[in-house]
Design a protein that fits this description.
Helix content is 40%, strand content 23%. The chain has helices spanning 29-46, 57-61, 80-93, 110-121, 136-144, 158-169; strands spanning 2-8, 21-27, 50-54, 66-70, 103-106, 126-131, 148-152, 172-173. The strands form three sheets. A four-stranded parallel beta sheet has the order 7-6-5-8, sandwiched between helices. A two-stranded antiparallel ribbon has the order 1-2. A two-stranded antiparallel sheet has the order 3-4.
Length: 177
């Protein structure tokens, strides 16, 4: 078992006088190796995003080739898939995510859908903190990928609520920003 002390700096919205938190983070080397291997396998599977040529006569006459990237080929159908993959890999390599960690995100959009996908890929619980007004379609997509939705009354409350859920579960607030 690998353990190390991790220092967590105060979040952007906390007063500067808030002291950094120190926690001991442990990870099974085998689980960590397998988690990183799964993320790398996803990268290999989707490393080449399909490029679709868009033929426009004005551009073609000027010798300009225009292509569109088709991010819909990712399992989550989103360009946020790459962001989520990077966030997970970064959190794993820094010891912030370990076997059994609950992953928490303050998002009601495509980032939450993609993070739910990666959490399920690694066998981790995922909670998306979102306003009650979130579209039923996004909720369904998050739940399809194994995530759970935690609703708050206003969009402004999602960040504090996400930090609180992460604290209560002993998990990791991914914080895409």
């Amino acid at each position: 078992m690998l353990c190390r002390a991790a220092t967590i700096q105060p979040m952007q919205n906390q007063p500067l006088s808030s002291p950094p938190l120190t926690a001991t983070v442990c990870a099974s080397p085998r689980w960590l190796h397998e988690a990183i291997a799964r993320i790398e396998a996803d990268y290999q599977r989707s490393a080449d995003t399909h490029l679709i040529p868009l033929r426009l006569p004005t551009f073609e006459h000027s010798g300009i080739d225009l292509y569109l990237k088709d991010e819909s080929t990712h399992p989550t159908g989103s360009l946020k898939h790459r962001l989520a993959r990077s966030l997970f890999l970064y959190a794993l390599c820094n010891g912030w995510v370990r076997e059994g960690s609950t992953i928490v995100e303050a998002s009601s959009g495509s980032t939450a859908v993609s993070e739910a996908y990666f959490a399920r890929l690694l066998g981790l619980p995922f909670v998306a903190v979102m306003p009650r007004s979130t579209s039923r379609e996004k909720v369904a997509q998050i739940e399809f990928h194994g995530g759970r939705c935690h609703f708050v009354d206003s969009a402004g409350a999602v960040y504090d609520a996400a930090r609180e859920v992460a604290t209560q579960t002993g998990g990791h607030y991914m914080d895409q920003f």
